[in-house]
Amino acid sequence: MAPTSTAAHAEYFTSLAALASYFDHPHAVPLKPLPARRRPARSGPRLLVCHDYKGGYNDPPDAMGYTFNFWPCVDTFIYFSHYRVAPPPASWITAAHREGVPILGTLIFEWDESKPDISLLTSRGRLYASLLARLAHERGFDGWLLNVEVALPGGRAHAEKLLEWIGELKSEMRALVGEDAQVIWYDSVTDAGHLAWQDRLCAANAPFFAAAGKFVRDMDRHQAQQDEATTTTTTTTDANASAPAAPTTTSTLDIYTGIDVWGRGTHGGGGFKSHWALDHIRAAGTSTALFAPAWTWESQEERWTEGQGQEGWEGWWARERRFWIGGRTPLGTEVPRPSASSPSPSVPPPEDENEEQPDLDLELMPGFFPALCNHTPYRPIAHFHPALPTYLPFSTTFCPGTGRHTFARGEKVGGAWTDMVKQDLNVMMGDVTSLYLEDAWEGGASFKVVRANGEDGTFVGLREIAFDSEDPDPVEAEVVFKPLVPALPESVNVTVVPAFLEEEWEGEVDEEELENGWRRIRARFQPGKKTGTVMFGVRVRLGGVGAGEVLLGALSVRKCQCVQEN
């Protein structure tokens, strides 16, 4: 289904005039997506993810497609498109907000054809600041990325008007969306109005950082070493050289250094060598902007959509999972390290010959160059930006937002689909867990747990829960599960109990038979006195069988209803 841009149902706008027309005429106001839930803030460098997948607005409703599932690692998400005004779709807003992640739209000006619009923006600045804020408020998203990739027709005077307009936009956004509304500037235009990427914070772009408060710039792969020193000093040196100091709310954490996962101009070549650039970004103390992480899917899309098993969606998921949280290192991702006695790189250790590996040629990105730095071995994105914990209540159906089949209460009711509204995979995976697409309680997948521990009920952690009280209220939790037959005989007494790590249960555990072989166990217990975070998950008992597989269909934990009613 092609995306639409009519005034009656506008997914995006190709011009500022189209945006104005939309608000000048009656139009259907969509239901607001979920508001963003509360979650703990990250204290160190943050991760911004810029969607940038095939132009956007292309989720296939009747086929398996790309979805994003690693929200716990992300601090801000940008839905990127090359249309002039690109608000995020409601389904993506819901998916982001379900995990507490702010999601932004894109305002973009590129190529000469956009020059009339960038002139219109500043000549009628208050109008368009108001319209963009109204659009964000109407559709329930959290801010804008400002991407001006065209020389300003009026030069320095035009740049000064643009700086003033950014302030108006921030004011309108805070009035309508709230104090947490975000405006982020992409480094491309200088304070003289020239189109000239600086790839660092400096005198030519510091005024835009000061105006917006957040700043995304590319990393020049040829200046990766120099960039560390530059970035850590410019907030007090370069910025002061050209303009009043940036507001005290800005810091190096408000500077986002870009990594293009396709490898365009990226130190290390992107892909499974994105950690090369992340090593430098972390050393510099800035935050990270990760562009186009859908590379894992888009670079081999035909393979993932037409193949089966490890040559189909499951193969992509293994690749996606390695990129985000690690696993076995794909061929070609090992990093030669300079030896102590010679400047030439040492020979990397051989790969495990039994390990499934992608083709080497597919993993080396355009722009790759030999090792010039003493980089670490492969490390995933979550090593640098770990998953944040969440507050109660917490729930998941383990659905990745797509499926080979559609399930409702354990029954197969439809075929392939993609819909981010149903995406609910907000757990972090370990060595004994994987997605399973052939059976599910709700949505498109269940969570397969492989255990070889007999009756001891070894804990399987799935998500950290944060408590901000030293004496937490009683909580109630439930899990929906199903033994995976024929992996386990039907005679085996399988029990899956929701649990916190190292907590003692108090009270009874209730079990209920559900449809299609699924079961539910509910439990109520009192957490011990603590603040901070504790891991939540399940304990699996296999009734004396040495090994087996169990499917998890849903898992949740919340304060007891009796506490909420009081």
From TrEMBL:
Region described as Disordered: spans on this chain: 220-248, 328-358
Top-level taxon: Eukaryota
InterPro entries: ENGase, TIM_ENGase
One Gene Ontology molecular-function label: mannosyl-glycoprotein endo-beta-N-acetylglucosaminidase activity
Low complexity bias spans: 229-248
Gene3D superfamilies linked to this entry: Galactose-binding domain-like, Glycosidases
GO terms for cellular component: cytosol
Signal sequence interval, chain numbering: none
Domain Cytosolic endo-beta-N-acetylglucosaminidase TIM barrel: 60-405
Protein name: Cytosolic endo-beta-N-acetylglucosaminidase TIM barrel domain-containing protein
